[in-house]
Write a structure and sequence with these properties.
Elements (H helix, E strand, L loop, with lengths): L1 E5 H11 L14 E7 L2 E7 L3 E13 L1 E6 H9 L5 E6 L4 E6 L2 E6 L16 E6 H9 L16 E7 L2 E7 L3 E8 L6 E6 H10 L6 E6 L3 E6 L2 E6 L18 E6 H12 L10 E5 L3 E7 L4 E7 L3 E2 L2 E5 L1 H9 L5 E6 L6 E5 L5 E5 L9
Helix pairs in contact: 1-2, 3-4, 5-6
Length: 368
């Protein structure tokens, strides 16, 4: 193999693809990136048996070939090259020569035969939507995916396409995030995308109107983001009937400035740390919300004067869970809906139904 390309293009490709590379693997080749040079394409891939990222880099290919190169070493070398144009050449003994300006490197590669094939699958469905839309939907829900591998299905998010609406749902047993958006699709399908895959997609998505193609299969999915293709397994199993978990009554309701509420909760959070988590008590009165938090560190109190409709209620929350939900509302005001001290709080927009966040309360000591 012998190719010439631009350093910045190659560096960006290796950096993004490397996020799918195993840091430690029983298969040494998976700690590298697969580099293929055929025709007019220089293709670079990373794969950890769960998620694969692959992209094409513009290059002049003088001799075709393929080889596996240590991802970390390759990125470190390319990042530190002195000039913009570089040449990569390999020989029959799997030696890789990298030359740029006055800098020359000679490193050992691995045979591409040792590299597992990325999954291929038959498309069963698909959807196309703007990059910005998908970025916002994932960002506003992925925080609520579970990290508990005892219930792997909740380590991913449910993607549901129905009646030209895409809904993404994440739930971890303590909170739930639901995000909806109208889409141009006649599909009727559901699938569960791992949270780790969504986080990698999020890093590639831009705040623009470029479109993302989502190719859906029985057990795998591909996201086409710009020049990148992210291939992931889907999580198999039955996701909870999330609609049935949403409280249908509203005994207490308040519209409140999001930043103002977050500030009060953050002030109470100062009484907590990683070792201790005391609930932030929220007492909803007729014209005021009173906040208190007491721990071994000390105690704090605060209040917000605001009209409240319905019953008075005292309820406790994990401060981090409540703040995560509020941070992802992306709006100046939110509506809070409560149904007593042991029922989850609903956080939703003042108008419309683009999102719905639920936080399960912590039991307060005086509740017995």
């Amino acid at each position: 193999m012998k190719i010439t390309c631009l350093r910045t293009d190659l560096q960006s490709a290796i950096s993004n693809v490397s996020r799918a590379v195993s840091s430690k693997s029983t298969i040494p080749a998976l700690e590298g990136v697969l580099v293929k040079a055929y025709g007019d394409n220089l293709n670079i891939s990373g794969y950890n048996l769960e998620i694969g990222i692959t992209t094409d880099v513009e290059a002049t290919i003088k001799e075709e070939g393929e080889i596996v190169i240590s991802a970390k070493l390759f990125l470190d070398i390319v990042r530190n090259l002195p000039e913009e144009i570089l040449t990569i050449e390999t020989d029959d003994k799997l030696i890789i020569y990298i030359q740029c300006g006055e800098a020359d490197y000679k490193i050992t590669g691995m045979s591409s035969v040792e590299y597992p094939d990325l999954p291929t699958f038959e498309q069963t469905d698909g959807i196309t939507l703007p990059s910005k839309t998908l970025r916002e939907m994932i960002r506003q829900t992925v925080y609520a995916t579970s990290e508990n591998m005892e219930k792997p299905i909740y380590t991913g998010s449910l993607f549901e396409i129905e009646n030209s609406v895409l809904t993404i749902v994440a739930i971890d047993g303590y909170r739930m995030a639901v995000r909806r958006e109208n889409v141009d699709s006649q599909s009727e399908t559901t699938f569960i995308v791992p949270g780790k895959t969504q986080l990698e997609i999020l890093k590639l998505l831009g705040d623009d109107e470029e479109h993302v193609d989502i190719i859906i299969g029985q057990r795998h999915i591909t996201f086409k983001v710009k020049s990148y293709r992210v291939i992931s397994r889907l999580i198999e199993g039955i996701f909870i009937d999330y609609k049935s978990t949403i409280p249908q009554t509203n005994k207490t309701e308040v519209v409140i400035n999001t930043r103002r509420l977050m500030n009060s909760v953050e002030r109470m959070s100062l009484m907590n740390n990683e070792r201790m988590q005391s609930p932030v008590r929220c007492k909803f009165l007729s014209d005021e919300i009173r906040f208190t938090c007491a721990s071994a560190v000390g105690s704090a109190k605060d209040s917000i004067r605001i009209p409240i409709m319905g019953d008075q209620v005292e309820i406790g929350f994990n401060n981090r869970y409540l703040l995560d939900a509020l941070k992802n509302t992306d709006c100046d005001e939110v509506k809070l809906v409560l149904n007593g001290s042991i029922s989850p709080i609903i956080i939703k927009p003042v108008q419309g139904d683009s999102f719905l966040f639920i936080v399960v309360p912590m039991r307060l000591a005086n509740e017995g």
